[in-house]
From TrEMBL:
Residues 136-326 form the Calcineurin-like phosphoesterase domain. This is Purple acid phosphatase. Residues 341-398 form the Purple acid phosphatase C-terminal domain. It is an enzyme of class 3 (hydrolase). It holds the Pfam family Pur_ac_phosph_N. CDD domains: MPP_PAPs. Residues 1-18 form the signal peptide. It comes from Helianthus annuus. It catalyses: a phosphate monoester + H2O = an alcohol + phosphate. The lineage of its organism: Eukaryota, Viridiplantae, Streptophyta, Embryophyta, Tracheophyta.
């Protein structure tokens, strides 16, 4: 019955530009000095690491602390152990602690595990995602470390989600490396309990010409399953969970037709089994379809290079950040509405210190459906192989107010199978 009531939303075409009056952004959070022992695990977070495996990451100030994770399905009973490795980095006058990464598994799906890092410290727990529908993703980008960030995280905690997707701009440390440490502490309660899958944004660059390459802090701290997906860079990778194949791309690394990222993406998409993964999602930082006046045109070159590939593969939804506001489009391709195109969602509204992007283009493009300059988060519940329910929750009232929602039908079930499309075959499967 619920499906019958909400199905008309899938074809809604009326543009909504909300007139909600946003309060100003809140101040950056302040964190007390940490007096824990040098071997105490801090900034714990987890990520998916291939089929039935989880990567546990944490930091200790003691370089001799072991990269050991003990875990089991009962509190205080650790029947299994995983051993990993540790790295560290220096940045100007800053020296990181030991950054530990340990892959554990194989794990049972949809199961709560209890674990301990480094042989000591408090017991943590996480829940593995399911291997079949339904599955729920929480989505929020451009987080930062403000009071609004905390509101966003508090609201995400209320959502019964399985995996968090973050399309770039995590800590807003912006060269001040201690900002990465405070961000790690801020997100630990959520990031240690559910997998966080992230990609980089412009605030992760932190490059200093002739002295420091970009993304050193990001790559050291937030290791993603790039090797498991055949990628050679932590800046782009893919993973599969339940019936979804998710592609995480880099807006700030080479993406033209001669680049490693482009060639990897083409190879990744050309081998998909859409019976196994009927849903195809993509994330990157800079939006391609954006009617906000902020960051206009910044994604055009990447779109020119990669949009044909993603369209040919039948991507259902693209999530982007960068613009500090929310916007959802119709299915669109090559600048126009297209029933076999992609739904683009800009969700760079996690709560960062730079505030909101208030101004939109007027008149709006015909492909824009809903737009609002507010902080918030999104939830994507993929119900089955044909239908998913997307909702966006404004948090400016300190309550997660559902402001936008729509049922989305998968392209594969809508007669848009790329293998039936000659143009798609030429783009995706040509030499």
């Amino acid at each position: 019955m619920l499906l019958k009531i909400l199905l008309p939303l899938m074809t809604a075409t009326v543009l909504i530009t909300a007139d909600y009056v946003r309060p100003p952004p809140r101040k950056t959070l302040h964190f007390p000095l940490d007096h824990k022992s040098s071997s105490h695990p801090q900034q714990v977070h987890i990520s998916l690491a291939g089929n039935k495996h989880i990567r546990v990451s944490w930091i200790t100030s003691d370089s001799s602390s072991p990269s050991l994770v003990e875990y089991g399905t009962s509190p205080g009973k650790y029947n299994f152990k995983g051993h990993g490795d540790a790295t560290s980095y220096s940045y100007l006058l800053y020296s990181s602690g030991s950054i530990h990464h340990t892959v554990i598994g194989p794990l049972e799906h949809n199961t709560v595990y209890y674990y301990r890092c480094g042989g000591q410290g408090p017991e943590q727990s996480f829940k593995t995602p399911p291997t079949e529908f339904p599955i729920t993703f929480a989505v929020a980008g451009d987080l930062g470390q403000t009071g609004w960030t905390k509101s966003t995280l508090d609201h995400i905690k209320l959502c019964e989600y399985d995996v968090h997707l973050l399309p770039g701009d995590l800590s807003y440390a912006d060269y001040i490396q201690s900002g990465w440490d405070t961000f790690g502490e801020l997100v630990q309660p959520l990031a240690s309990a559910r997998p966080w899958m992230v990609t980089q944004g412009n605030h992760e660059k932190e490059n200093i010409p002739f002295f420091k390459d970009g993304f050193e802090s990001y790559n050291a701290r937030w290791k993603m399953p790039y090797e498991e997906s055949g990628s050679t860079s932590n800046l782009y990778y893919s993973f599969e969970v339940a019936g979804a194949h998710v592609v995480m791309l880099g807006s700030y690394t080479d993406y033209d037709e001669n680049s490693d990222q482009y060639n990897w993406l083409k190879a990744d998409l050309s081998t998909l089994d859409r019976k196994k993964t009927p849903w195809l999602l993509a994330l990157f930082h800079v939006p391609w379809y954006n009617s906000n006046t902020a960051h206009q045109g910044e994604g055009d070159k990447m779109m020119e290079a990669m949009e044909p590939l993603l369209h040919a593969a039948g991507v259902d939804i693209i999530f982007a950040g960068h613009v500090h506001a929310y916007e959802r489009t119709k299915r669109v391709y090559n600048g126009k509405s297209d029933p076999c195109g992609v739904v683009h969602v800009t969700i760079g509204d996690g709560g960062n210190k730079e505030g909101l992007a208030h101004k939109y283009k007027d008149p709006s493009p015909e492909w824009s459906v809903f737009r609002e300059a507010s902080f918030g988060h999104g939830e994507l519940k993929i119900v089955n192989s044909t239908h998913a329910f997307w909702s966006w929750h404004r948090n400016d009232d300190d309550e997660p107010v559902r402001s936008d929602e729509v049922w989305i039908t998968s392209l594969i079930s809508s007669g848009c199978d790329p293998k039936d499309n000659k143009e798609a075959r030429e783009v995706l499967w040509s030499p």
